[in-house]
User: Which sequence fits this backbone?
């Protein structure tokens, strides 16, 4: 081996030995690491902040109104004497609009998901998924306007001949459902796409057709992911504000008739808020008490969804 | 080596047609006289590696000689790559990895709590199995190392040129230094990765199967380069290819895997370590002989 | 099962086998209908709204302030400027924190530690909390700090910034995770510190993904009315915002107000404003898709 020494060369290599491997402290990097860590814990601070922000005024509220009256009372009349603070009508309003929403969103969302996951070619999927995303991107105030201007007067009254009020839970729920379709479709499609192809091929090899494979093999295998998608959809329905504030009405109502106007928890918050509430006033505290109830309900729903998602991760 | 060794003294000597085809029989190509015992730059003493509960490598003792090429060979799963990655603490990046025993670099244990892994990697560079150029220009790939470690370089341009010349790549890329490294062929990318490593002036270069994703011609370029680089660097190479070990290395360590009776997990261990010509001509262990002659592995 | 009654000789007559049975076709039609319904809904929404607002696509819509007295010429000037200020402030607040948090969680956090797992769980939950709640949080923070007026750009931006923070963190983590391990190892093996590796290799490679996710998050924030309503954003603003402590109104709030008015002229103005807002949302989404297709690297 005859190697001529390179003319221009990085004459490293012949390092006589380590001067020190101990390394410098790099104080700048330690500061940056600390900042990164702080940023990550901002998200925890947000949750803690939400709880503190809600619990403080809510506690003041519950010093005046017993918790049991709030949770089980059937009359919500915070603005007129004699005031009553039974939140059940608001909860019922939320329940009814969400129920209508899910009746719309679950079949259409799952249908879209099954088509995209089991039938659509990659090219079709590339075109249709952005359309669904667009549906998710429409501001909710726009949906609310549409419910008020088109769904109630044109679709429900003129075309379907349903006797509905100017504001009603039905129109709000239908639009709410359409808004939730992308959530359910996208998460369910993820869950169904994650089902191993071996299961599908096994089913097809036994002579089952695509419909049978989709309904009897893929759907059951993806069920916990689909359930998580639906639960998350429910959470969005419960928390949606602008659609119900515009289209569901502002009268607390315990009736199960969705053709009537109903106020939801979020609807009450949106209609009452507006900066005119002085900090510490009863109406301000009431707002936060309802907010706390809403937060607790969605927290429980979200946790159910998260647990369901974890379960699919364990399966595959 | 043949006349195809590309050094700056012989510009344009990279000639694909004169490249030796890989040999079919292991043939020891190194006629260097070596001291019987390597003068150690690095040393492993009772090295054990665990991934969680899995005992990956058992009691390895090795000395890596200065300005020598040491090859680590053995069947898949024998822990040779694991040992290599311990030598510059790349295993620190694997969650759950734990190293017991001692890895000494110039007598200092690199796993000592006072030692900074980053300082270790600045002295002990690594070239990976798959060429992994950065998504940057060819120039920036080579300049990256000196920049991040804050090397005092008089003229970065000539420093980059020197590294590319040492890696026998300069003539091929000198007109497109600002182009993306992803435009190079696999073999050129791997030489770029070697240039990138040289540019930080390491003491030791670790190579993890550097030719496994390359075609025979690119492989022989890299092998020639390794032999050239031996003049300045201590090189430790993991290879699947026995011919390669025979062609380029001065000393060879043969590893094998031993299955655990209860769990069935395979733990890697060192079988034999000697001069390459001895390992390939007169191995003292039957397992080595079986592997070399192709009866096993 | 239909399959059991199909005689062997039938196989050759039908190319698609028994996928063409009546039930199967009906099923496929139902699936098609689901997607078609979504598309028809989207088109109906855009078309009817555009028709409703047709009378107001004039320059006054852009140049005039909102007015209760002159509904024919009520305009979006304050709302457009307010939204612009609000979005820039929101982005400045949320993007640095979101990227920093994502980088920490993806590159440095030890996921076996309970507190890092808590952060993880917490993020998933935050992403699904109703947006009104973020308005209440902003009000709470403001009360704590002692700012008197709440309907200012800074407070609105805090609410929206915290609202989109989880989305930014989640999408940034995905973009960072997509950068191959080999790039990181190559950098570290040269003696770069983990932070140098992140800053010089991982983040530049992840930028298209981060940009796409961030822009989509902002396009959600631009249409959010609920938190701003809670914060107490003013209804009628007849001046341009001058800074982050300035009172303001925003597009979705203006639409909400005009929709709630009973006079027909305001409904028309609301419809026209919706088309403007949808245009902004579409523009942002288009930009995100453009970046995704043009710059996203496939490893």
Assistant:
């Amino acid at each position: 081996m005859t190697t001529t020494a390179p003319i221009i060369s990085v004459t490293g290599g012949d390092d006589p030995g380590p001067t020190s491997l101990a390394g410098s402290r790099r104080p700048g990097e330690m500061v940056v690491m600390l900042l990164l860590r702080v940023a990550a814990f901002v998200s925890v601070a947000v949750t803690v902040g939400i709880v503190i922000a809600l619990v403080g005024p809510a506690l003041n509220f519950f010093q005046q109104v017993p918790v049991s009256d709030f949770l089980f009372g059937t009359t919500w009349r915070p603005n007129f004497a004699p005031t009553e603070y039974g939140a059940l009508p608001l909860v019922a309003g939320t329940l009814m609009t969400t129920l209508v929403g899910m009746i719309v969103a679950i079949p259409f969302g799952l249908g879209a998901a099954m088509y995209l996951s089991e039938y659509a070619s990659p090219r079709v999927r590339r075109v249709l998924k952005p359309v669904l995303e667009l549906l998710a991107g429409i501001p909710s105030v726009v949906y609310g306007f549409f419910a008020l201007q088109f769904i109630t007067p044109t679709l429900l009254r003129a075309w379907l001949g349903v006797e509905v009020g100017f504001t009603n839970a039905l129109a709000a729920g239908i639009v709410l459902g359409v808004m939730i379709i992308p959530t359910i479709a996208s998460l369910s499609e993820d869950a169904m796409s994650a089902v191993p192809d071996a299961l599908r091929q096994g089913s097809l090899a036994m002579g089952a057709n695509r419909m049978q494979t989709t309904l009897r093999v893929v759907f059951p295998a993806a069920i916990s992911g689909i359930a998580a998608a639906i639960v998350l959809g429910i959470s969005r329905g419960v928390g949606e504000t602008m659609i119900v504030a515009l289209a569901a009405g502002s009268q607390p109502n315990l009736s199960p008739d969705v053709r009537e106007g109903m106020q939801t928890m979020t609807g009450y918050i949106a209609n009452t808020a507006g900066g005119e509430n002085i900090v510490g006033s009863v109406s301000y505290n009431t707002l936060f008490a309802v907010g706390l109830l809403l937060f607790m309900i969605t927290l429980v729903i979200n946790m159910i969804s998260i647990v369901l998602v974890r379960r699919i991760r364990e399966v595959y | 080596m043949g006349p195809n060794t590309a050094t700056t003294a012989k510009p344009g000597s990279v000639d694909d047609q004169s490249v030796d085809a890989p040999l079919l029989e292991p043939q020891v190509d190194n006629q260097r006289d070596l001291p019987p015992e390597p003068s150690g730059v690095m040393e492993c003493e009772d090295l054990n590696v665990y991934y969680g509960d899995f005992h990956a490598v058992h009691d390895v003792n090795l000395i890596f000689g200065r300005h020598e090429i040491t090859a680590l060979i053995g069947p898949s799963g024998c822990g040779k790559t694991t040992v290599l990655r311990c030598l510059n603490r790349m295993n620190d990046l694997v969650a759950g990895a734990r190293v017991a025993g001692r890895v000494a670099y110039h007598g200092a244990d690199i796993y000592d709590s006072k030692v900074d892994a980053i300082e270790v990697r600045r002295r002990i560079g690594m070239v990976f199995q798959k060429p992994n150029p950065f998504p940057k220009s060819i120039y920036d790939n080579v300049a990256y190392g000196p920049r991040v470690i804050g090397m005092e370089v008089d003229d970065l341009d000539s420093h980059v040129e020197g590294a590319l010349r040492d890696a026998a790549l300069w003539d091929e890329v000198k007109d497109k230094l600002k182009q993306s490294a992803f435009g190079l062929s696999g073999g050129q990318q791997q030489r770029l990765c070697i240039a990138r490593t040289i540019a930080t002036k390491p003491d030791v270069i670790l190579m993890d199967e550097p030719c496994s994703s390359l075609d025979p011609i690119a492989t022989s370029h890299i092998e020639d380069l390794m032999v050239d680089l031996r003049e300045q660097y201590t090189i430790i190479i993991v290879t699947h290819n026995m011919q390669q070990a025979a062609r380029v290395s001065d000393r060879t360590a043969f590893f094998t895997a031993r299955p655990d009776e209860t769990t069935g997990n395979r733990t890697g261990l060192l079988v034999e370590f000697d001069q390459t010509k001895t390992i390939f001509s007169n191995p003292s262990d039957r397992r080595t002989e079986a592997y070399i002659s192709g009866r096993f592995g | 099962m239909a399959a059991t009654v199909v005689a062997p000789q039938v196989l050759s007559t039908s190319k698609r086998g028994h996928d063409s049975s009546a039930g199967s076709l009906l099923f496929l039609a139902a699936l098609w209908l689901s997607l078609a319904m979504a598309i028809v809904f989207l088109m109906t929404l855009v078309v009817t709204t555009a028709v409703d607002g047709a009378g107001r696509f004039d320059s006054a819509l852009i140049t005039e302030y909102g007015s209760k007295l002159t509904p024919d010429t009520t305009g979006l000037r304050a709302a457009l400027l307010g939204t612009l200020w609000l979005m820039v402030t929101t982005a400045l607040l949320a993007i640095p924190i979101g990227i920093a948090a994502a980088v920490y969680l993806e590159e440095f956090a030890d996921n076996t530690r309970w507190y890092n797992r808590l952060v993880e769980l917490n993020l998933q939950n935050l992403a699904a909390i109703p947006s009104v709640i973020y308005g209440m949080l902003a009000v709470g923070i403001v009360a704590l700090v002692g700012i008197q007026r709440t309907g200012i750009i800074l407070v609105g931006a805090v609410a929206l910034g915290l609202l989109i923070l989880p989305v930014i963190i989640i999408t940034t983590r995905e973009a960072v995770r997509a950068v191959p391990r080999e790039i990181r190892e190559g950098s570290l093996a040269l003696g770069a510190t983990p932070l140098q590796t992140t800053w010089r290799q991982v983040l530049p490679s992840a930028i298209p993904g981060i940009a796409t996710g961030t822009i989509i998050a902002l396009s959600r924030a631009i249409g959010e009315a609920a938190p701003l309503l809670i914060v107490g954003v003013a209804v009628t603003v007849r001046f341009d915002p001058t800074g982050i402590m300035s009172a303001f109104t925003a597009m979705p709030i203006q639409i909400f107000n005009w929709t709630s008015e009973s006079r027909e002229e305001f409904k028309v103005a609301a419809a026209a404003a919706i088309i403007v807002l949808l245009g902004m949302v579409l523009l942002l989404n288009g930009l995100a898709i453009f970046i995704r297709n043009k710059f996203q690297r496939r490893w």
